């Protein structure tokens, strides 16, 4: 077995109602000044209020003017808003956008480096404030990862800042947080989570540790995403999605996403297509392109998710996973073409160029992508 490592949050609470554990965490950490990060959508859904009530015994401040899929300037603005305030605990209540901003604040507030310094060299990062992550979508797995993604408008793309110190200290996986999540967001964030586990399992960086989380995450997500999308009251399916998404995040820290996420970044950066949607559009096409290099891995994933197909051939099992990916995207009514977002054939050159620069993730892909390969994949989704 090759050497491997997995960095995970210190304490993970899961189960309906576990949001109340925040009170215990405040005691353990002896926190007196708490900063709650959220956004208007999450606050409007009444989810921040629950956390505010728990924090009412101490001093707390809420920052809710975060934009979805934040850019460098958005993060700089909220960090400036915090100023010199004394903070001993940060709570991120939201989707990946909020959690990424919270994680960045935990390493930038009180530091002698800036976000722009981190974009050049994330190895300088140090955590200054402990964090609690409360995901309210079932997708990014940011509550488990050491990554934060920021949009870079001048490059019309996105960049990940990666450092182990960003791993959250506490995670709260409470299904009540996604009880009223609009089906459209269940779909896009759920497919994002599915992409995490499938990409991590087929990644060159996959290890025996990340495989365990990727396989179990895939089983949970493939079997529950349609139920969670179609039936708002299916809390069991939603719980499975929430844990599956978390496992996806853990798999990312042990392995890494690949060409789906790499080619997705320019779509988010330039056309502002939601992260989960741009991944969904590319997902089955990238896996079909990769198939000859990872058929055995896709077949192993099929064995884990659909054991009833164990007698099928490797190729049939790999095909099954790819067609199920396409089926899930279709069944959850996510767009399947870039045309719907105003992307034109004349944008192809930009996309190929920008996609090929996502080398951090492209190197993980089981198959090397030439510029022509990248063009071929983008053309498939035009
Ligand atoms: N750090 C990581 O490991 C990682 C991994 C993947 C993606 N990301 C990043 O995460 C971001 C995307 O995060 P996301 O997909 O979770 O979406 P998001 O955080 O951008 O939220 C999408 C929308 O859903 C709303 N929303 C969230 N929860 C809600 C709820 N329970 N009820 C009603 N509305 C709700 C928000 O207000 C927002 O308008 C992107 O910037 C992406 O690059 C980070
Ligand atoms: Zn993702």
TrEMBL record:
CDD domains: Fe-ADH. Residues 187-381 form the Fe-containing alcohol dehydrogenase-like C-terminal domain. PROSITE patterns: ADH_IRON_1, PROKAR_LIPOPROTEIN. Residues 9-174 form the Alcohol dehydrogenase iron-type/glycerol dehydrogenase GldA domain. Pfam families: ADH_Fe_C, Fe-ADH. Keywords: NAD, Oxidoreductase. Belongs to the iron-containing alcohol dehydrogenase family. This is Alcohol dehydrogenase class IV. It comes from Pectinatus cerevisiiphilus. The lineage of its organism: Bacteria, Bacillati, Bacillota, Negativicutes, Selenomonadales.
């Amino acid at each position: 077995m090759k050497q491997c490592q997995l960095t995970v949050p210190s304490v993970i609470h899961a189960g309906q109602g576990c949001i109340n554990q925040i009170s215990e965490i405040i005691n353990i950490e002896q926190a007196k000044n708490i900063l709650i990060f959220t956004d208007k959508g999450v606050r409007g859904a009444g989810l921040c209020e629950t956390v505010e009530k728990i924090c009412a015994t101490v001093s707390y401040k809420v920052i809710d003017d975060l934009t979805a899929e934040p850019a460098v300037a958005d993060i700089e603005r909220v960090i400036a808003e915090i100023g010199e305030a004394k903070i001993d605990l940060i709570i991120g209540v939201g989707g990946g956008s909020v959690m990424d901003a919270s994680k960045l604040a935990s390493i930038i507030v009180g530091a002698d480096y800036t976000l722009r310094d981190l974009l050049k060299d994330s190895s300088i990062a140090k955590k200054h404030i402990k964090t609690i992550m409360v995901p309210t979508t079932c997708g990014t797995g940011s509550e488990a990862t050491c990554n934060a993604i920021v949009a870079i408008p001048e490059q019309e793309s996105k960049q990940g800042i990666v450092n182990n110190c960003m791993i959250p200290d506490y995670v709260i996986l409470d299904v009540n947080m996604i009880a009223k999540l609009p089906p459209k967001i269940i779909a896009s964030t759920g497919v994002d989570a599915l992409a995490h586990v499938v990409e991590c399992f087929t990644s060159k960086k996959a290890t025996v540790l990340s495989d365990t989380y990727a396989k179990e995450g895939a089983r949970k997500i493939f079997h529950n995403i349609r139920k969670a999308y179609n039936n708002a009251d299916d809390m069991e399916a939603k719980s499975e999605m929430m844990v599956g998404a978390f496992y996806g995040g853990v798999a990312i820290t042990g392995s890494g996403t690949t060409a789906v996420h790499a080619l997705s970044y320019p779509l988010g950066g330039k056309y502002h297509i939601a992260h989960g949607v741009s991944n969904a559009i590319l997902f089955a096409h990238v896996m079909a392109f990769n198939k000859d290099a990872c058929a055995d891995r896709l077949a192993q994933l099929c064995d884990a998710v659909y054991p009833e197909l164990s007698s099928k051939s490797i190729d049939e099992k790999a095909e099954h996973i790819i067609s199920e990916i396409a089926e899930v995207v279709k069944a959850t009514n996510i767009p399947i073409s870039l045309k719907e977002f105003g992307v034109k054939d004349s944008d192809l050159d930009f996309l190929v160029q920008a996609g090929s620069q996502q080398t951090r993730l492209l190197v993980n892909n089981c198959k090397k992508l030439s510029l022509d390969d990248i063009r071929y994949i983008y053309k498939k989704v035009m």
